Amino acid sequence: MATLSIIVPVYNEEEVLPEFCARLRAALTTVPCAAEILFVDDGSLDSTPELLEKLASEDERVRVLRFTRNFGHQAALCAGIDHCTGDAAVLMDADLQDPPELIPQFLEKWQQGYEVVYGVRTKREATRFLQVAYKAFYRVFRALSYIDVPRDAGDFSLMDRRVVDSLNLMPERDRFLRGLRAWVGFKQIGVPYVRPERMFGVTTNNLIKNIAWARKGIFSFSYVPLELISYLAFGVTTLAALALVFYLVVYFIRPPAVGGVMTLIVVTLFLGGIQLLCLAIIGDYLGRVFEEVKQRPLFVVKSILNDPRPKPPDQGPVNGSRTAS
Question: Per CATH, is 3-206+298-317 categorized as 3.90.550.10?
Answer without folding.
Answer: yes
